[in-house]
Specification:
The chain has 238 residues and is of the alpha+beta class. It is built from seven helices and ten strands.
Length: 238
């Protein structure tokens, strides 16, 4: 017999159902009464579960409307992971993005390790160049397990609406909701390949963040390396 509290078991089950796309981002969940009947427990227990799902950034409640799976799309530009700032601390909200590459490839050992997938598994690999104040300033490189993003295409990223979060694109194409991430920050110098992509001198000082993004149930679904010119920008970690 398990000693895990009932509300914990139910919360895990709801997260698994969201990851399985039974409920997609923005979908309305059954009422507390209906969920209580499904799980054979009290409405009070389900109320506690929902409170924790809201605290975990998985669900949101709307007075008089019900319980909904959280969505980047439904909340406009909701992206708490924006990291680049100018050196004076002002947040960079306006920038131009150029999608340089979008390709399908086999995961190398280091990428497979970051994504917790088998070496050689199929991944989507894309690179974006950021221009701030009309100057090339940041490089965004990302790897996604193709198994989780079978519908994502070049056009989905390239033709996003103005101010639309990339994570809302993930929702629209494949129903993937990112709710958590772990990050590391490091300094370094531009490599020859990066220098060529950013149109900057080789050896330019840079700051990088390495992010592993997770789905509702904690499964890693994205590995990203963000690189910025340390002479013009800094990275904010809050």
């Amino acid at each position: 017999m398990t000693d895990i509290p009932k509300y914990v078991v139910i919360k895990r089950s709801i997260k698994q159902r969201i990851d399985a796309k039974e409920w997609r981002p923005g979908d309305k969940l059954p009422s507390l009464k209906q969920l209580a009947e499904q799980y054979g427990t009290s409405v009070g227990t389900l109320r506690k579960v929902v409170e924790q799902l809201v605290d975990d950034d998985v669900c949101t409640t709307r007075f008089g409307s019900g319980i909904f799976v959280k969505s980047y799309s439904n909340q406009g530009f909701w992206n708490k992971y924006q990291r680049f700032q100018r050196l004076d601390g002002t947040i960079i909200t306006a920038y131009r993005i150029e999608l340089l590459t979008f390709e399908h490839e086999k995961a190398k050992e280091n990428i497979a390790h970051e994504l917790n997938i088998a070496c050689g598994a199929s991944v989507i690999h894309w690179i974006r160049l950021f221009y701030v104040d009309n100057l090339p300033t940041g490089l965004d490189e990302c790897w996604l397990p193709e198994e989780l993003f079978p519908n994502l295409k070049y056009e989905d990223i390239e033709n996003r609406g103005k101010g639309e979060s990339l994570y809302s694109t993930y929702e629209k194409t494949d129903g993937v909701l990112i709710t958590a991430a772990s990050e590391r920050v490091r300094g370094g110098l531009l490599t020859p390949v990066q220098a060529n992509l950013m149109h900057l001198p080789m050896g330019t000082p840079v700051i990088q963040f390495l992010r592993r993004s997770r789905m509702v149930g904690g499964h890693v679904c994205e590995f990203r390396i963000g690189t910025c010119d340390a002479r013009r920008c800094q990275i904010s970690i809050e």
